[in-house]
User: What shape does this take?
Amino acid sequence: MKHKSSRMKVGCYLAGVAMFMMFFQVEANSDQSAASSPIWIQDPYTSDSVLTYVGEHDTSLWNAKRITDYEESLKVKAIPPLGIFTIEKLNLRVPIYNGTSEYYLNRGLGRIKGMAKMDEIGNLGISGHRDGFFRVLKDIEVGDDIEIQTTEGVETYAVTSITIIPKNDMSVLAPTTDKTLTIVTCYPFYFVGHAPDRYIVKATAKSSLEE
Assistant: This one.
């Protein structure tokens, strides 16, 4: 009888631990769901798709009209983005669309057509609005990590340079032999009207730096 009582106590203890762990797992999953939204990304050439997520966007630095334009863009159904652009340090996780139309740049970031495709060797160009998603780039620094997620996986880039150039200087869009990333936005960040310059962040894939 004594052994049976001991086994019952152990059983109750284990059941209690299991319920305790389940409670915190549910809480953790609820917190993650509240802070992120599921999104499908798709390779337009193979139609391969991957389910991932984007974070809740911090619009505290955004222009008021840009916030309105972003909210309006969400009311229109869009084709799946090519991938996800992440700078963990700046709390930025945004979808990348294939092109730089105003609609795409209100909704996320855009791949600059004519430059490298998402998983190609070469110069991948990504554009975004300075008064929206890319305003946080004012705080980026050389050496920071940038992640690009596609249906093929995640590629990590290291920022190698930050420059300001005239808006008609297209040299930064030239092809490269390494896997590089060129991020383009207008500058100055808080300029009223059409900004005269472009803020350019260059980064190189860490896989290329290790070769």
